[in-house]
Amino acid sequence: MVEYPPLRSIFNHMVKLSSSQLDAIFHALSDPTRRTILHTLAEGEHSIGELAAPFNMTFSGASKHIKALEQAGLVQRTVQGRNHICRLAPEPMAQAMRWLQTYEHFWADRLDALEQALRQPDPPPPEE
Q1: From its phi and psi, is residue 78 left (phi > 0), alpha (psi between -120 and 50) or beta?
Q2: What domains are there in the chain, each with its CATH number?
Q3: For every one of its 128 residues, what pLDDT tens digit does the chain have, with 9 covering 90 and above?
Q4: Predicted TM-score of the model (pTM)
């Protein structure tokens, strides 16, 4: 039997996300359809039918995407009669963004060094 280490929590300044929460957020954001759904929900609440229409998909297909967004905590769904109304829950995305900002200085430093290297004049060719 394989023993796995316990799940670690990822700390970023006063933000605490478990590895599984962060995984769910990035999994949800990895799909272009779900990113478009989030963009649409940033404008306001929509029914699943309204969210499915631009993709020409069924309620069931759209509902699967919504479920992935719900599991990541990015979307909240309420049922009003026969309508499933979705709204954006931005806090998990903000937490993931803060986690990513931890690495921003790393990449900024590397890109600055690359820029400096590219700006250096080419050395003259060796004489034969």
Answers
A1: beta
A2: 9-117 (1.10.10.10)
A3: 444 344 444 444 434 567 888 999 999 999 999 999 999 999 999 999 999 999 999 989 999 999 999 999 999 999 999 999 999 998 998 888 888 888 887 788 888 888 888 888 888 888 87
A4: 0.69
